[in-house]
Structures are given as C-alpha cells and as structure tokens.
Design brief:
about 80 residues, mainly alpha
C-alpha cells in the first residue's frame, strides 16, 4: 500500500503545509543575514533594510502561490 494512499483528508491542505516550509526557511535566512549585515556595517542600515523587505515580499509571494495552486488544480 502506498504511503500517499494512506493519507486521508484534503490533499490541498497538506500541499500548502509542505509549500510553506520553503518560504518559511527563506524568510528566516533573509532576516538572519540582514541582521548580521547591519551589525557589520551600521552605516548601510537603510539600504540593507530595504533589500531585506524586498526579499521578504518576494519570498512571501511564493507562499501565496503555494496556497493558491492546489485549489486551482483541484478543479473545484
């Protein structure tokens, strides 16, 4: 018996949970590295913060795409 066949419930919810792992790790990396960069070069705080927020927005867009795609492909 396949492991996937033993899973019951809405597979869209499971797919979104798996799709949220990548952006979650990405956001952690973005802000962790951003804090390190600000600590090393405090005079560039505004530039680094701008780049952090841009990276955060693009990474969160992946999470939103991961939320929408299972529902679009479910046919319902």
């Amino acid at each position: 018996m396949s492991t996937l066949a033993a899973v019951s419930g809405d597979l869209g919810s499971i797919a979104y949970g798996l799709a949220a792992i990548g952006p979650g790790i990405g956001v952690g990396i973005i802000f962790g590295q951003g804090v390190q960069a600000i600590a090393r070069q405090p005079e560039l705080t505004n530039v680094i913060r701008t780049n952090m927020l841009l990276g955060f927005a693009l990474t969160e867009a992946l999470a939103l795409i991961g939320f929408v795609v299972p529902f679009v492909h479910s046919g319902g």
